[in-house]
Write a structure and sequence with these properties.
Distance between the termini: 100 Å
Mean pLDDT: 83
Largest sheet: 4 strands, antiparallel
Strand content: 25-35%
Strand order of the largest sheet: 13-36-35-34
Helix content: 25-40%
CATH class of the largest domain: Mainly Beta
Structural class: alpha+beta
Shape: elongated
Number of helices: 10
Low-confidence stretches: 1-18, 169-177
Number of domains: 3
CATH architecture of the largest domain: 6 Propeller
Radius of gyration: 51 Å
CATH superfamily of the largest domain: TolB, C-terminal domain
CATH topology of the largest domain: Neuraminidase
Oligomer: single chain
């Protein structure tokens, strides 16, 4: 950097301003005061370091070996170095030093060289700085002398303010002789080929082969013949153009500033509106949740009080029965018996009444998982309150209404076809899990899908093979048969998502295809076109259990009694429709008759078996030994060709192979008495 005593390395402590001096002495690259100022042939000056290291080297980066010139950073004029044979990193050193700039910087540091007021100087005060120049009087004036002397005598003459350029004027007068920065000789020649001034040494060494080299004075005369006036006119036009551009930029900056303020205000206003909208949505959901909670708690409190009063009465009856004196009291004993009978009957009536009129209510807040995603296309929403009511479960079989006497009541239907499906759906397997989750296997679209029992679509996973039967392993995982590749796919079900956990490739099964599946005793039982197999979960090794006469498309496990039930799809009279496996034994449970083309099969918590008759268009219920058979659903109930069925608690879901119902899941409630 510059040292304080070197005129070619001026101090950086000189204050900058927007004066002519500051503009002339400012490097266009670093925008700081010139240091080692070097002038290009176009007469634009730059710091030597900025020109060499910061500009030439970077501009020619990647083409350093082949480059023989560069463009001026200001006017973009193509410039050739004085000596191309030298390293490009040293090209900047070859250009002449701007002696005028060096001298101006040196004199700017010396305040004694400033122009002084002419009247004050005549009075002996030579330190008063002049601020005005009167061309008519050829005199300098300070502010006081201009007002008190000049303006009184020359009222119509307006002196020029020289506050900003008085230093430059003095310096230029003192720097009349400009030397060559390379040889320290006077610049007396001009090479028109290279458009550059030089001393006689420059001409002899660097321009001896040039065609047009004249003296500087001759070239000045040539310029004075009109070229300077023409150039000055062009410069004035360029100045006007730059002024227009600057004003345009300033106008654009003003517009952008105003636009920014308006946009920020709009953002703030929108955020306030969004907050207001979200507050309203939150209040609506809160009111719904609060109202539902209040209604259900009031109903539950009434039921609780009824139960408490009846329980207290029965406890008193039980306590009275322990009184030894009562044994000798005939009337008292009879009264106690009658009272107990009435209380038991009241208990049964109360439980059954609650079962038909009341329900277990669960409430939750649901929203789409991608609601917080930045690229979401969903409308502004805070989700919804889900209020699910399920028939109350009886506390004891002594007073409960058994499943064997209940009927299926249609609650709703919902479509399992989603926007990403390319074909009509065909659900060959279905599972009903806790928290009202429904998992379906869509064969046609090769997907496993997750819904709520209300029909809200939650998630899906696609497969490259067609999924058939489904079974639950536990409350957070299901198994699905991929029929074309004889593989069991394990899918986890967590909250509102599905994910593939693992694949089990079935080995040693001699049949071409596997259809049905259930999970029992930590292994899978599968059905093929002719046999039942047990499959180890860890390695997929299959062991043949029993042959069947036709395809076994569905199986289910009775967890209460340890039985496995398998349906056999056949319509031949007298052939097997449902078989039962238990402790290595094989039992024929149901033959073709009331059910033909047996498909979906499931078992409730009491051990009752439900079978879908695909050809008979019905759903039957029977005991685990094949007795007490009754039809629960027929075509008159609005479902045709039932394919798969799943039960959980008092709810049941059924799919259909009928062409008009393939996209639908039917949701039923097990209710008391007639439907």
């Amino acid at each position: 950097m510059a040292e304080s005593g070197d005129p070619e390395k001026p101090s950086t402590n000189v204050p900058k301003s927007q004066s002519l001096d500051a503009l002339v002495l400012e490097c266009p690259i670093c925008l700081e005061q010139l240091q080692h100022p070097k002038s290009l042939p176009c007469l634009h000056s730059f710091c030597q370091e900025c020109l060499g290291c910061s500009y030439i080297t970077k501009e020619l980066s990647g083409k350093m070996a082949s480059s023989s010139s560069f463009s001026c950073p200001v006017c973009r004029k193509i410039t050739e170095p004085v000596n191309q044979s030298e390293d490009k990193e040293r090209w900047a050193e070859q250009f002449p030093t701007n002696s005028l700039a060096v001298e101006m910087i040196r004199h700017l540091l010396n305040t004694d060289d400033l122009l002084v007021c002419t009247p004050c100087g005549k009075k002996g005060n030579t330190k008063v700085i002049a601020k005005f120049w009167c061309k008519h009087n050829q005199s300098y004036f300070c502010a006081d002398c201009k007002t008190n002397h000049h303006d009184l005598v020359h009222g119509n003459c307006e002196p020029e303010n020289i506050t900003e350029w008085n230093k430059s004027a003095a310096i230029r007068r003192k720097t009349s002789a400009v030397e060559c920065g390379k040889h320290k000789e006077k610049l007396e020649y001009f090479c028109e080929d290279h458009q550059i001034l030089g001393c006689y040494k420059c001409i002899i060494v660097d321009h001896r082969k040039c065609e047009v080299v004249t003296s500087a004075d001759d070239f000045r005369v040539k310029l004075a013949s009109g070229r300077i006036d023409s150039l000055l006119e062009e410069l004035r036009k360029c100045v006007d153009a730059m002024d227009i551009l600057i004003k345009d930029v300033e106008e654009q900056l003003q517009f952008m500033t105003e636009d920014q303020v308006i946009a920020l205000d709009s953002l703030t206003d929108l955020r306030a509106k969004i907050n207001e909208r979200l507050d309203k949505l939150q209040k609506e959901l809160t009111d719904k949740l609060t109202a539902a909670f209040k209604e259900e708690t009031e109903s539950l409190d009434i039921s609780k009080h009824k139960c408490e009063r009846l329980m207290l009465a029965m406890q008193m009856t039980l306590a009275s029965s322990q009184d030894s004196a009562l044994k000798e009291d005939t009337v008292g004993t009879i009264s106690l018996f009658q009272r107990g009978q009435a209380e038991v009957e009241s208990c049964k009536n109360l439980v059954q009444g609650l079962e038909t009129s009341s329900s277990t209510t669960r409430m939750r807040h649901e929203y789409k998982p991608d609601i917080m995603a930045l690229d979401t296309t969903n409308s502004l929403s805070m989700g919804k309150i889900i209020i699910h009511k399920q028939q109350k479960r009886l506390p004891s079989t002594a007073v409960s209404y058994p499943f064997s006497k209940r009927q299926l009541k249609l609650v709703r239907r919902f479509s399992i076809r989603v926007r990403s499906d390319y074909e009509e759906c065909c659900s060959l397997g279905i599972v009903l899990l806790s928290a009202d989750r429904v998992v379906v296997a869509d064969k046609n679209n090769q997907k496993v899908k997750l819904f709520t029992v209300e029909g809200d679509f939650l998630c899906e996973v696609g497969r490259s093979a067609q999924p058939y039967d489904l079974c639950n392993i536990d409350d957070i995982s299901v198994a699905v048969i991929l029929v074309s590749v004889n593989t069991i796919c394990i899918v986890t079900v967590e909250d509102s998502t599905l994910s593939i956990l693992s694949y089990i490739h079935i080995q040693n099964a001699t049949d071409d295809r596997v259809y049905g599946v259930t999970f029992a005793d930590n292994s899978f039982i599968i059905g093929t076109g002719s046999s039942l197999y047990s499959v180890e979960r860890k390695d997929g090794l299959a062991t043949k259990l029993h042959p069947v006469k036709s395809r076994c498309l569905h199986l289910d496990n009775d967890k209460l009694n340890g039985h496995v039930f398998a349906s056999v799809k056949t319509s031949s009279p007298g052939t097997l429709a449902v078989v039962r496996l238990s402790d290595g034994t094989y039992t024929n449970v149901l033959k073709v008759g009331i059910v033909t083309g047996a498909l979906g099969i499931d078992v409730d918590r009491e051990g009752n078996v439900y079978v879908c008759g695909g050809d008979s268009n019905n759903v039957i219920q029977m005991a685990g030994d094949g007795t007490n058979i009754r039809e629960l659903l027929t075509v008159s109930d609005g479902i045709e060709c039932p394919r798969a069925i799943a039960l959980l608690g008092d709810q049941a879901v059924v799919t259909s192979e009928c062409s008009t119902q393939r996209n639908l899941v039917h949701v039923f409630q097990l209710v008391n008495g007639n439907k």
